[in-house]
Structure formats: C-alpha cells, structure tokens
Specification:
Elements lengths: L1 E5 L1 E2 L1 H19 L3 E5 L10 H9 L4 E3 L10 H7 L3 E2 L13 E6 L2 E9 L11 H13 L5 E6 L3 H11 L5 E5 L9 E2 L5 E3 L4 E4 L8 H9 L13 E10 L6 E10 L1
Parallel strand pairs: 1-3, 2-12, 3-4, 4-5, 7-8, 8-9, 9-11
Antiparallel strand pairs: 1-13, 6-7, 10-11, 12-13, 13-14
C-alpha cells in the first residue's frame, strides 16, 4: 500500500494548489490512500464546505489539530462525517472522533490524530497514553495504522515515533508548516517524518502574510493574521507500506509548486 500524507493546508493559496494538483499527484504517485491535514484551510479552522471540497479533490481522510474548533459550523460536520478526525486527546465530550477507519482498495486503513502538549497551551490529555488506548481497537480492525501527530516540538514528535515504533505503519508530524529532511523508517518498521510541511503560499511566514508576522514579532498590538496569496507549494510525504505486516518499507518527501 502506498499512502500520501499532505501537510497543513493554509488559506486560499493552499486550497487552490490542492484543487489543481491533488488528483494528478495521487495518480502519478499511485497512492492508495490520501490523508490531508485541513485545520488551517480557513487560516484558523476549516468550514464544512472546504472540508467537502478537499474530499472531492482526492483526500480520503482529513485530520485537524489545535484549531479544530475555531469554526463553529465544523462541529456538526465532525459528528456527521466519518472522514474527518480531530485530535483524540481532546477532552471527553468534544465533537467528532479522534480515530477513523477508511476502506481503501487495498484494505482497511486506520487514521489516528493526536495533539502534542509541549508549547501548545490547550491542556489536552497525554497523547502517549491516549495512543496506547487506541492501538488495541485499531489492531482489531487492521494492521495499517497512520498517526498524524500535530505538535510543536520536534522532540515530542520523534519521541512519539519511538513510542509507537513497530506498532503503527507511520507517524507524521504536522503543525509547524516547515517540511523537515529527516524522513526515515525506524528500527521496528514505522515510517516517520518530523513535519510534512505546508500546503500554502510560498511568499509567506508559514502561510501568514509576511508583514503581519513581522508586526507581531516587533511587538505591534492587535495584529490580525490573514493568509498570504501568490504562488503556492504542496508539501507532504509518501509512505510505502507492506500490506501483510503493516510496516513501512520506505518514505519519500513530496514538494511541488505552481
């Protein structure tokens, strides 16, 4: 099985390049399953119409992160759809689910979404212990298990990969919007990359208009971020997974631009 994981979609530029290139990329890469992190499609959060569009454009499952509930209207969509997941370690009673199962042409795929705790002030449950609770249920259905770990610290992401090594097919980091060059297969057979990167405007500061980001770091008051425009890039990674064992046999970074 070949899995394409796409980094955080940011604003109109990210949606535009995804619409133009995702199906072609999927065909060219011969991907059997496509996971897209969608939590910044509306810059902060995602709307139901944006989520439906990304699924129409070739995504099989959408993952989220610390901005999961920024758009109030997405909550009902989360409860209705089995193709969008928010971090599983949000408090009990949060809308939606943190794990889903997708039937690809090559079999069942489990997608788990987790949120890091280092430098993210949202008070989620411990992602390591939550992952443990989910694995038994996941393995009862399939041995193809993919984990989107939406976290700030590279160390926390790497630690999660070691924690799950040999028990999941792949762990890929999202949230920091900068693609890392450390893609590899861990000793136990879990594919890993610290961060998939970003799908959004290249001329930006992680998707935000550069002048707004500069104003924020200079200490200006009441800076409101909006997504940058212009030529965009699509970042992600391809994971080759052994169908019989569920273990990863190769990882390749993806980077395309308009």
């Amino acid at each position: 099985m070949r899995v394409l994981a796409v980094g955080d979609v940011c604003g109109k530029a990210g949606l535009r390049i995804l619409e133009r290139h995702l199906w072609a990329l999927r065909r060219e890469a011969e991907a059997d399953c496509v996971i897209v992190n969608a939590e910044n499609a509306h810059m902060l959060g995602v709307t139901p119409s944006e989520a439906r569009s990304m699924l129409d454009w070739g995504a099989d499952v959408l993952t989220l992160g610390n901005h999961s509930f920024k758009r109030q209207e997405i909550r009902e969509f989360m409860d209705e759809s089995d193709r969008i997941v928010r971090p599983a370690n949000y408090p009990a009673g949060a809308p939606g689910e943190g794990m889903c199962f997708f039937e690809s042409e090559k079999g069942c795929v489990c997608v788990i979404n987790l949120l890091g705790r280092c430098d993210l002030p949202f008070g989620p449950d411990n992602p390591f212990s939550v992952a443990e609770k989910l694995l038994e249920k996941a393995h009862a259905h399939t041995n193809i298990i993919l984990v989107d770990f939406h976290a700030e610290a590279t160390s926390e992401k790497c630690a999660m990969a070691y924690h799950l090594d040999g028990r999941v097919s792949a762990v890929f980091g999202t949230h920091t919007h900068v693609q890392t060059a450390d893609e590899r297969v861990f000793p136990g057979g879990t594919g890993f990359i610290t961060d998939l990167g970003m799908t959004g405007a290249m001329d930006s500061v992680i998707g935000v208009k550069a002048e707004q980001s500069l104003a924020y770091f200079r200490g200006d008051m009441l800076v409101r971020f909006s997504s940058a425009e212009g030529p965009a890039m699509l970042n992600g990674a391809l994971f080759d997974i052994d169908d019989s064992t569920g273990l990863c046999i190769g990882v390749e970074r993806v980077w395309i631009s308009e």
